[in-house]
Amino acid sequence: MKYTLSTHTDAHGQPLRMFKANFENNVSKAIDQLSGICAGILADGVVSEQEAAFFADWVRKFSPLEPVWPFTDILARVNRIFADGQCDQDERQELKCVMEALCGYGIDTEAQETYSSTLPLNTPMPDLIFVDRIFNITGRFAFGTRKKVMEAIEAKGGKPSDSPPNRESHYLVIGVFASRDWFNTNYGRKIERGVELRDSGTGLAIISEEHWKHFLV
What we know:
Distance between the termini: 49 Å
Strand order of the largest sheet: 3-2-4-6
Shape: elongated
Number of helices: 7
């Protein structure tokens, strides 16, 4: 497969934002395009040298036009991998994991369901305290319905919320399953807000359903 990369410029030769209209629309459309690129690259389950270089070039050219998560995280990863100008087999495997994390699925994923993006999760994820802590939840949970998830949090003394996280929130728990258009849904908006809060120093932790379940025992 041959990849062609072009940079949109204005009349003065300066880069344009990828898409006009409002900010959220810009980011959503940019995510759509990057997800499509990732899906095409992952179709055969292998990331070649040419595909890795194309992905890196796209991220480097367009991420600065949308300087928000997840572009900021992806750009940082790409810059580290290509710091020496090379991308060996292990690094291509790392890029493959990044692409799968972004898309929320891998080559062996069942068609009817995809896994949630792992890109925004805290690393390492923290030990959890339930009593009097606010847990915002998002996505679809293997544990059960959102009602059951909220009941489990309450049973441990926590305060569950189905609303977007705010500055009072302590944890954002991401359900293991999500639709392929996760970024364009309320699910994606909650994650985006969670990343903004965490990066601003509120103390919010973004955790996976698996990690959350570990502390229910």
